[in-house]
Amino acid sequence: MNAAVNVEEKLFQNRYRVDAGRPHIRIKQPDLCRTECGTQSCTYVCPASCYKAEGNGSVTLITDGCLECGSCRIICNEHANVAWEYPRGGYGVLFKFG
Amino acid sequence: MNERFDAIVVGAGPAGNAAAYTMASAGLKVLQIERGEYPGSKNVQGAILYSDALEKIIPDFRDDAPLERHIIEQRMWVLDDESFVGTHFRSDDYNKPPYNRYTIIRAQFDKWFSSKVREAGALLICETTVSELLVDGNRVVGVRCDREGGDIFADVVILADGVNSTLARKAGFHAEISPGNVALAVKEILFMPQEAIEARFNITEDEGVVIEAIGKITDGMMGTGFLYTNKDSLTIGIGCMLADFKGSPNRTSPYAVLERMKKHPAIAPMIAGGEMKEYCAHLIPEGGFYAVPRVFGDGWMIVGDSGGFVNSVHREGSNLAMTTGRLAAETAIAAKEAGKGFGAASLKAYKAALDESFVMKDLHKYRDMPDVFHRNNQFFTTYPELVNRAAKTMITVDGVDKKTKEREIFGDFRQKRSLVGLMGDAFKLWRAFR
Question: Hey, is the C-beta of A79 within 8 angstroms of any chain B C-beta?
Fold first, then answer.
């Protein structure tokens, strides 16, 4: 069901002001995703597909397309492995319509 | 900033704007802090504006607020893969001013509301994120911003920082949100000529239709879809419980359920040709009565989504946000007038006002609803399928007599849910709704 949908095309319509080099969300211990987390639900629940499951079992995060919803932090409740802040003032997604 | 304020409001959504407007209008010295480029640029909603809550704050809002269409028809659809069974309620009474509800575009509406807040005398600073509350002992005394010299002090801080409620959580006022207490919704705005919208939805200029949908589109998860008519755009979205997304056996993504909804044969023709100009995601606090945290303390109050004030059964949120914002502001105004300070003893009047208002009364009425629906996902899976099959069986003319058709439908329900299951479901719904 997920494969046919290109979320990048959707995100392309949005306006962002990326805080280059200062991601507002961070995976605290990347090893934990590989060794402790069986489901890696962030890789399909994130509505902007910021989390990617890599071939070697790890999870990578690129926050540029983040919609600032907070889902990733909340679903990581067993491991609490997501350090989540809002972007600095003025940065991040800038909704034109909301 | 060395200046000291009576009140700081964090956030410029409906709750924060209602609070800041009410306090500034009463002469309090108010600072409002917004992290977006402008008020609205971080805010996401369906969006329906319920007039009543705003009228109580700005009675003549219709004079210049950016409103899209007033709603004259509400459709509720129960979808199977190929079909839907629906009820429509349309009344010309909804065409008589003052109108009861409108579709709005939040980026525009919030900007307008904020202009009223500033006219009332509040100071607004944008592009500034509050990183934490300044606490002295048990008492909130101000906020720390992500600007240089960013400590600002006030007698009371009103937290209107949205569903993630980052500040109260960091300060330890409440725990992390549970995935079972929030829905994750995604939506798109699709632009098309006004005439196309009016022809497709059987409406004239300024009239609007809202469609709420449950059923197969949520892929077995507890959730609802919606389609709203704006002036020259449609908003289409779908939200499901975050716990259901997380536990989805198909590892279903939110954008995948949205695409599936857009392709449904009953929906696709209505949105055909629409030009997608934005894709948004947002959490909706749906834990209801039992999920509302402590909402006040020494020097602080929580309003809007940040306090979990959403009536998920009736899809109401922004009206609860504005009402809680206004009630918190009125509490602060009374506290200042009484001169007894802004401690918890003084601010507990806010909780009493909430309990007396429709906000807590409605949340209490539906207190068991989130749990009942979440434990019984047949309401979102089995029943939509059964209802659609029953309608098809009765409506299709194929030479089978109606008595046999009735038996077939009843057998279908019994096979899928059993008699005990059916009666139990009816009882659960009755208990939760009464």
Answer: no
pLDDT at B362 over 90: yes
Q: Which domains does chain B have, with CATH numbers?
A: 4-68+104-174+293-356 (3.50.50.60), 180-285 (3.30.9.90), 371-433 (no CATH)
For B247-381, where are the alpha helices, taking DSSP H only? 254-263, 268-271, 318-338, 344-356, 358-365, 369-375
Q: Do B278 and A13 touch (CB under 8 A)?
A: yes
* Structure confidence by residue, pLDDT tens digits, B156-199: 999 999 999 999 999 999 999 999 999 999 999 999 999 999 99
Nearest to B41 among A5, A74, A95 (CB): A95
At B320-354, the pLDDT tens digits run 999 999 999 999 999 999 999 999 999 999 999 99
Q: What is the ipTM of this complex?
A: 0.97
Calpha distance B407→A5 (Å, rounded): 42
> Which residue, A29, A9, A7, A25, is CA-closest to A68?
A25
Give yes or no for B246 touching A (CB within 8 A): yes
Nearest CB among B40, B233, B259 relative to A5 is that of B259
CB–CB of B184 and A47 under 8 A? Answer: yes
Interface test with B, best of A6, A25, A91, A97 (most B CBs within 10 A): A97
Query: Residue A9 has what pLDDT?
Result: 95
**Which residue among A69, A90, A92 sits closest to B281, beta carbon to beta carbon?**
A69
- Summarize pLDDT for B281-294 with one digit per residue, the tens: 999 999 999 999 99
In chain A, the domains with their CATH numbers are 24-87 (3.30.70.20)
Alpha helical stretches, state H, A1-98: 7-11, 30-35, 42-45, 71-75
